[in-house]
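sorry for the late reply, my laptop died twice this morning and i had to redo everyting from scratch. anyway the thing you sent over, i finally got around to it. pasting the sequence first so we're on the same page, its 473 residues, then the predicted structure underneath. double check i copied it right bc i was rushing
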Amino acid sequence: MNVTQETIGPRQVVLRIEPEQRDVDRAMRRVARQVSKYRPMAGFRPGKAPYGMVLRAYGKEFIVNEALNDMAPDIYRQAIDDQELEPYSQGQFEIESADEPIVLKFTVDLMPTVDLGDYASLSIDPEPEVAITEEQIDQEVEAVQRRNAEMEPVERPVAMGDQIVAAVKGVDEDGQDVIDQEDATIEINDDTMPPGFAEAVIGMTVDDTREFSLTYPEDYETEDLADKAVSFDITVKTVREVVLPEIDDDLAKSAGDYENLAEMREGLAENLKSRLENEARQAETTRAIEALVELANVDYPQAALDDEIESMVNRQRDMLQQMGFELGNYLRMTGSSEQEFRESLVPGAQRQILERLVLSEYARAAELEVDAQELEQQVQMFTYSMAMRYGDDADRQMRNIPRDRIALSLYGDILVDKARQRLTEVMTGRYSEEEESDEIAETEDTDAAVDETVAEDAAPKADAATTEAADEE
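ok and here's the structure:
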């Protein structure tokens, strides 16, 4: 057969194939036999009608098309092998020409390619060592104090630091309702959004009503409100004063498993240090991946991006369902169409694809592996999370996902996580091959000890079984 290949997009090709006419003729005869077998012709046993009669009865075009559809899978596999292609997904088939010369067309998305470049030369500056100050600990203690504060209703004007319950209506510049709540609880402080809101309500008393307009910041986290002017109509219903507890041993005991204030400060310091160290490692990892992605040359098909977006949509849908919302209703509430929602996901999807591809290639280059125990632990954690998410419906949900598919997906996730950690350690200069060898040796010794223990436990059972069999004889 004659095969021509044409590139039509990133990692996407079209194969045009002219099959051998004798192969098409044989396939047409097979189809004719099958047709006459299931739809016998008068005067002939099933499958025994003459080929020419079947051809005239059903038409050459029908027989040719059926034959080409039957041939397509084998032709596709042979062409993929001959062209040494690695498909990302099953090729899309169509008959481009059913007349001689017959031409079959396959549109094929190819697996992504990744060239990491001279990644071994990359390095980043480690984040500074974390050192906790007394001032930071004081701030943590004050946060505990605020969390344990009590709210007491007061009969006075609203002041900074109060909490109010109010009827609030907000309308944006397009006339759309931004907020419409009868009993909104609002903290009145410098962080209250939009800027100026706290100042606008200070001095109000119960049953007071005010109208004012404010603009949200350009970088506001809710994109629909970013840089928008909103007209507010607010009526105060309750004013509450924040009553902070004393910072003493009693606060420590009520705030956690602490005996006294000194122990709480020590615990808060340890937690803060751990959190800041995790943030430092995450910052290093982010910079390391950015450096690797910038150096790498990555090419992937549009289908890979479409799949990533679909996964993100499904994750968002699942998350909303857990909160009692439907995706369609959520989009209507935010004033977005599904197409606009999907388009908003494109930048994030592109970033995720690039990161996963380069990290997967880095894992391969670094010869990272996932052992069976690690994989089994992750499978069990996944099973547990499904049980927590779906409750009584978990078994049905799990039946819809083959275990080997779960394991394969988790294997890739574990490998990417290992690549993140190794990449960060190498690029910051903290990675030591000697330490890695020692850890591997310790793991192998532990595995060997476990195997030996299992063997010893099994030996008496084997001896007993042998004796029992001898007695039976």
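The chain has four domains: 2-111, 115-146+259-298, 150-243, 299-447.
thats about all i looked at so far, will dig more tmrw
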